[in-house]
């Protein structure tokens, strides 16, 4: 870089910048020819010369994405030096500048998680680009890894607040670094009980093993971190806990495979085909839902109030299907399966809709599924003999025995 230009950038002298441009109209273009170089924007951002920074962004915005010989962008340097106003102004111009990967793959968000939050920069970053929380370094570390490793509890809280609003929060929380450690492993190893609680509340999986075959609990034991051991200890015996984990993992794998078969390539469906499918699925949902309300043959209405000789057994059969038990189950179970498939396909087809409208439809469909699910439990139990366990199952779902036979 020309020494006069460097001096102008370091002192924030905009007038001198234009004097140099008048002398050489290509003075800024030459920086495009070099892959890694200190630009005037780097110098001004590091020195905190906001006026010069904004002038360069106006004349040559491409410099904001350049990395210098140390692998840092102007945004990296501004964050590192704590020049909050420059960072915010750059963020207003290009939100994705916070996702530029510099040396070791670190983004400006990774730097904040390491050096600490300057005047609320973290909240500004997460609001402008919440998906930046998914970015990883060359060592496969997320912002969560870095925050935990540097004992930044306040930053971890902010990151988890953002993660809770995302569908992919489990994937990010349980992401492994180059050694197979999740953020939970690091918190357990460093005996960070408050961080452990935050991560566990955000569905961190304590059964995940690292490349040494150790869980977070094993690491806490190895370092004799009593507080971490107490938090991570399961209320069940290790055998039962491991069985539950394996069963849960197998169920998740089966459900994932089944859902991928159903919704594979659904994003490629045209808008016309999507609309036609939504109409068909709406008819299926309506038909199957109506069937739960009025099964073929109807339901028993019991004896009239004028009959005084009715027994308690007769009264108990009010609202149950009149079909024989075997016939009822043969009809009802396939119908409910059709309802579930139509329900989940409808949710998948709603993906391209605006987020607010999609969420509203998902809530309404969830209420519909909840009511239909409850009616299935009531209907099936009404054709079966009552026993202690079936009564407990229905009680869990919020239904008392008076609804069924």
UniProtKB/TrEMBL annotation:
The chain crosses the membrane at residues 331-350. ANK repeats lie at residues 70-92, 139-161, 179-211. The keyword Membrane applies. Gene3D superfamilies: Ankyrin repeat-containing domain (1.25.40.20). Keywords: ANK repeat, Membrane, Transmembrane, Transmembrane helix. It comes from the Eukaryota. The keyword Lyase does not apply. SMART domains: ANK (SM00248). This is PGG domain-containing protein.
């Amino acid at each position: 870089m020309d020494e006069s230009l460097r001096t102008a950038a370091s002192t924030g002298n905009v007038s001198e910048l234009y004097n140099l441009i008048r002398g050489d109209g290509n003075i800024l273009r030459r920086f495009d020819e070099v892959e890694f170089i200190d630009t005037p924007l780097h110098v001004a951002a590091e020195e905190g010369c906001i006026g010069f920074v904004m002038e360069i962004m106006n004349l040559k915005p491409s410099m904001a994405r350049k990395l210098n010989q140390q692998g840092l962008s102007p945004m990296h340097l501004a964050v590192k030096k704590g020049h909050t106003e420059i960072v915010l102004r750059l963020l207003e111009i290009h939100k994705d500048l916070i996702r530029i990967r510099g040396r070791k793959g670190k983004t400006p968000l990774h730097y904040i998680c390491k050096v600490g939050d300057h005047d609320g920069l973290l909240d500004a970053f997460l609001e402008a680009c919440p998906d930046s929380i998914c970015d990883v370094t060359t060592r496969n570390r997320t912002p969560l890894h870095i925050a935990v490793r540097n004992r930044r509890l306040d930053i971890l809280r902010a990151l988890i607040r953002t993660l809770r609003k995302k569908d992919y929060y489990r994937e990010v929380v349980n992401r492994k670094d180059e050694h197979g450690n999740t953020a939970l492993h690091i918190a357990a190893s460093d005996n960070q009980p408050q961080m452990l609680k935050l991560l566990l509340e955000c569905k961190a999986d304590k059964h995940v093993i690292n490349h040494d075959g150790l869980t977070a609990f094993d690491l806490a034991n190895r370092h004799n971190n009593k507080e971490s051991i107490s938090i991570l200890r399961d209320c069940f015996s290790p055998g039962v806990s491991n069985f539950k984990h394996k069963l849960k993992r197998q169920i998740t794998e089966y459900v994932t495979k089944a859902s991928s078969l159903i919704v594979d390539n659904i994003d490629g469906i045209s808008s016309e085909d999507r609309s036609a499918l939504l109409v068909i699925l709406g008819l299926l949902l309506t038909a199957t839902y109506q069937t739960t309300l009025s099964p073929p043959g109807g339901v028993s209405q019991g004896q009239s109030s004028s009959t005084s000789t009715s027994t308690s057994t007769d009264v108990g059969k009010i609202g149950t299907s009149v079909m024989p038990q075997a016939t009822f189950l043969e009809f009802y179970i396939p119908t409910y399966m059709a309802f579930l498939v139509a329900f989940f396909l409808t949710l998948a087809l709603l993906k391209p809709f605006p987020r607010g409208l999609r969420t509203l439809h998902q809530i309404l469909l969830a209420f519909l599924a909840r009511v239909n699910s409850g009616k299935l439990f009531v209907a099936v139990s009404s054709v079966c003999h009552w026993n202690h366990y079936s009564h407990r199952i229905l009680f869990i779902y919020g239904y008392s025995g008076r609804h069924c036979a």
